[in-house]
Specification:
Strand order of the largest sheet of chain A: 6-7-8-3-9-10
Shape of chain A: globular
Largest interface: A-B, 35 and 27 residues
CATH architecture of the largest domain in chain A: 3-Layer(aba) Sandwich
Helix content of chain A: 25-40%
CATH class of the largest domain in chain A: Alpha Beta
Oligomer: heterodimer
Number of strands of chain A: 20
CATH superfamily of the largest domain in chain A: P-loop containing nucleotide triphosphate hydrolases
Radius of gyration of chain B: 23 Å
CATH topology of the largest domain in chain A: Rossmann fold
Helix content of chain B: over 70%
Number of helices of chain B: 15
Radius of gyration of chain A: 25 Å
Strand order of the largest sheet of chain B: 1-2
Chain lengths: ~500, ~375
């Protein structure tokens, strides 16, 4: 047998407008944990999608255990013994664990009827062998995110995969669940599996990986022995220059109380209670970070604050004015800015030009009047041109560029520029740097700090603990729609926050 | 080098919405021609008829028969209006199949004003106004249902079409002189003045059509309302998030759509060849043809105007074709083909992406 489990040689893959993989080579030895490191958009996921048969490469060849193969679709990948644990789990929520695992290859008895008990036994055996604690008969709805991920791993084991690809496996996990996952990966390796770990988190690479290949902007940079290098070395390989891990920050100057939330309760669109009796306060010049695992009410809280979801109980006051039942527009006029999590869905209009996007929140104001009270679009352009310069938004056609044609980082800059230009008293920011490259991340973080120093109060929702620890003056942990604790910067460690994130809601399920 | 020029020409056609529309119309006529040849008729007769209805010079009789132009323009008027009625909600992301019902309500309202009020000078203006209002209400109801209660506008408008049809019959049966098919004659004071080409049905309604086209363009491109409507149409979530009232956008767009269609109904009734009140037994289909008009016109004001004229030409040429032994159904076939080709636009987008990809690949390989 060949020394390498996977060899991807000279892979090139283009999409309209971008070269996702440019002559990339990846060689993964048998029975090792191989990390694939790169920023968002570096081409990691594309490369793995090619390996898993979701895309076909424009050039290059793939060898699995030394044999050249043509992976036309995921079914071929599965028969070759390649399994993938996707970042977004592909599970049917009202099915049991076993039903999900056998989906598409259901065991049948003599009469052609579904026979789940065989499968349940096999799943139980697998989960015992690999230390994947999960009840084969439990419904997906009733188990934690960490357990759902184990179901995904079991799926790959059930189909006898020798190679398991993990795509950003820790994005949705609490720090404790991350530790458990690392344990599972070690166990899988001990049982002879070959593992590819796609990630941009350096700690995880240091924790479990043997080797690490780095991609940058679609190009292969190199492969290193993880034991020989430091996190900083990996980071500079990933980014192409030395990286500062800490953002420079001025001391905080707290002003008067601007936002006061008292006993808020908010339902989501489907009528499920997502925020329960939540109270918080925010002062001018303060960044309040809300730390928590995705889905614990963060987005509902922000939508409730900006008026997209009705508040069931409690009050929101902004500068002493009760805005609980005001419309979105009235809140904007009172000085509430919002940088939404999903920038394409809620933040901007892709078909509009940058200049039309720049005035979405204040187009009705008289300064945009043309002749006869019409709307003078040339006046939008001045605003947008200014913002493009100030925020270093890279465009093809200046203010006339279609927003949808910009990269994620530039779209985000355009949104933040629009919000900041309205001089809000309170700025709600959700996941401002998700999916952006390091340059844009640095710019946006610094810009948020700059706004803070000017006296804007900022609520920052982020699933990246690093971001919260770096930027925030105050940290509130949220779990199951309730605030678990509020701390000043430096009062708590990352581990303590992690414990609190897991505390009430999801933690209860674990105990069951 | 030659190759490069070719590329840019095809690309230019693909880039431009206008060129695509023109290309599609040409394709429609080409296929229509093939069909005519296939059934053993002379396509030059077909094109002759179409040409006549456009410029009014008959091939055989000689002399300028400008009446044909007038008829063509008269036919175009409701097509243009119904195209606008489809196009405006489409810009807001709605699919208004209710132009037919709004058209019927407009017609019925105009007829009610004409027959139930004692005649007075300038009564036709009141008729038009009431028709516009009736259409606007009919469309606005659907708008409110959609905006406030998220009722599918497609289902609602289809239902409202039938309510309009049978509601109109109920109303018209109670009008003076009602028989099974028609009511008493319309008073002279409500008929639209036939000016310029007195022998045809071409009438002063054309000014209202032009006003409608202009206001469509003006509202969409020059006003805050239009900006709000476009924002709502492209991305409702972002619009809401930015404090834009999507309820207002949706309701207003449906009401405006209804106003256009309502006006069309009044123009057909008051500008027609027979000045008699109608009790309709079926739909006139102007509203439904509006869907095709707005597809060809790509929901722009000028595009709708041109597409409406094209459909008017085809309708007028029907009678001329029959005179020349060409089955008039060929015009429906051409219209249908045009709509099918227009619907292939998304296919063109895919083709464009494929071309871009191929080009990129070439560049990448060339750099190696």
């Amino acid at each position: 047998m060949s020394e390498y489990a996977i060899e991807m040689l000279g892979i090139t893959k283009t999409f309209p407008g971008i070269i996702a993989n440019d002559n990339v080579t990846l060689q993964v030895k048998n029975n090792e944990v191989h990390a694939l490191l790169g920023e968002n958009g570096a081409g990691k996921s594309t490369l793995m999608s090619i390996l898993f048969g979701a895309y076909s490469p424009d050039a290059g060849k793939i060898k699995i255990f030394g044999n050249e193969v043509n992976i036309k679709n995921p079914t071929v990948a599965t028969t070759l013994g390649i399994g993938m644990v996707h970042q977004h789990f592909k599970l049917v929520h009202n099915y049991t664990v076993t039903e999900n695992i056998v989906l598409g290859r259901e065991p049948r008895n003599r009469f052609g009827m579904l026979n789940l008990s065989i499968a349940e036994k096999k799943v139980q055996a697998l989960s015992d062998a690999y230390g994947l604690k999960v009840d084969p008969k439990a419904k997906i709805d009733d188990i934690t995110v960490g357990q759902q991920q184990r179901v995904e791993i079991l799926k790959t084991l059930y189909s006898n995969s020798q190679i398991i690809i993990f795509d950003e496996p820790t994005a949705v996990l609490t720090p404790q669940e991350v530790d458990e996952l690392m344990e599972i990966i070690r166990k899988l390796k001990a049982e002879g599996k070959t593992i590819v770990l796609i990630t941009h988190k350096l700690k995880e690479i240091k924790a479990v990986s043997d080797q690490c290949s780095v991609l940058r902007r679609g190009k292969y940079i190199g492969t290193v022995q993880v034991a020989d290098v430091s996190e900083e070395d990996l980071a500079s390989m990933m980014v192409g220059r030395a990286v500062k891990f800490k953002t420079q920050k001025n001391p905080v100057h707290l002003g008067k109380k601007v936002l006061d939330l008292q006993h808020l309760s908010i339902l989501d669109q489907n009528g499920n209670p997502k925020i329960k009796d939540l109270s918080l306060e925010l002062r001018a010049g303060e960044i309040l970070g809300i730390a928590g695992v995705d889905g614990n009410g963060q987005s509902e809280l922000l939508m409730g604050l900006c008026g997209l979801l009705p508040v069931q109980e409690g009050t929101i006051s902004l500068n002493g004015v009760d805005i609980t039942h005001m419309t979105v527009l009235q809140r904007i006029e009172k000085g509430l800015g919002y940088v939404p999590e999903d920038r394409q869905k809620y933040g901007l209009i892709k078909e509009f030009s940058l200049s039309e996007n720049a005035v979405l929140k204040d187009f009705y104001k008289p300064q945009y009047n043309g002749k006869f009270h019409t709307l003078d679009q040339s006046k939008f352009k001045d605003i947008a041109t200014e913002e493009i310069k100030e925020f270093d938004i890279r465009t093809a056609l200046g203010a006339d560029t279609q927003a949808g044609s910009l990269s994620g980082g530039n779209q985000q800059k355009a949104i933040i520029a629009r919000e900041v230009s309205l001089n809000p008293h309170v700025l709600l920011v959700a996941q401002p740097t998700r999916g952006l490259d390091v340059g844009a991340i640095e710019f946006i973080r610094n810009r948020l700090l700059q706004e803070r120093d000017k006296g804007t109060a900022i609520i920052l929702v982020s699933f990246e603990l690093d971001e919260i620890m770096n930027l925030c003056d105050t940290i509130a942990t949220i779990s199951n729609g309730q605030i678990v604790g509020v701390f000043k910067e430096g009062e708590v460690s990352e581990e303590q926050i992690g414990l609190m994130m897991a505390s009430s809601g999801k933690g209860e399920n674990d105990a069951k | 080098m030659q190759n490069e020029n070719n590329d840019s020409f095809v690309d230019r056609i693909l880039e431009s919405e206008v060129m695509t529309s023109i290309l599609v119309v040409i394709l429609g006529f080409l296929c229509g021609t093939l069909i005519i040849i296939a059934v053993g008729k002379n396509p030059s007769d077909m094109f002759g008829s179409i040409f006549d209805s456009m410029i009014g010079i008959p091939k055989r009789k000689g002399g300028w028969n400008y009446r044909y132009i007038g008829e063509t323009l008269a036919y175009s008027m409701p097509f243009i209006l119904c195209g606008l009625s489809m196009g405006l909600p489409a810009r807001v992301g709605l699919f208004n199949i209710g132009a037919e019902g709004q058209y019927i309500m407009g017609m019925t309202a105009a007829q009610s004003v004409a027959l139930w009020m004692s005649p007075f000078g300038g009564q036709w203006i009141l008729c038009l106004l009431v028709a516009v209002l009736a259409g606007a209400i009919w469309g606005g109801i659907v708008g409110v249902l959609k905006a406030k209660y998220n009722v599918s506008e497609v289902v609602a408008t289809i239902m409202m079409n039938y309510i309009a049809l049978y509601g109109s019959r109920l109303i018209c049966f109670t009008q003076p002189g009602a028989t099974t098919y028609n009511t008493a004659a319309l008073p002279q004071t409500v008929l639209l003045d036939k000016f310029l080409i007195k022998t045809s049905n071409f009438n002063i309604g054309v000014f209202f059509v032009l006003i409608a086209v202009l206001s469509y363009w003006f509202v969409m491109n020059k006003t805050r309302l239009g900006y709000m409507m476009r924002a709502t149409g492209y991305n409702k979530n972002t619009a809401k998030c930015c404090g834009i009232s999507t309820i207002k956008s949706i309701t207003t767009s449906m009401a405006m759509a209804g106003a256009f269609a309502g006006l069309a109904g009044a123009l057909v009734l008051l500008g027609g060849a027979f000045p008699i009140g109608r009790i309709i037994t079926g739909m006139d289909n102007y509203g439904f043809m509006g869907i095709a008009v707005s597809l060809v016109g790509n929901n722009t004001a000028i595009g709708n105007l041109l597409a409406g004229l094209l459909f008017g030409v085809l309708k007028q040429s029907q009678s001329l074709m029959q005179g020349r032994n060409i089955p008039k159904e060929i015009t429906y076939i051409i219209q249908g083909l045009i709509v099918i080709f227009i619907s292939l636009r998304s296919g063109l987008v895919l083709y464009k992406q494929y071309r871009n990809k191929k080009k990129l690949k070439k560049e990448v390989l060339a750099n190696k």
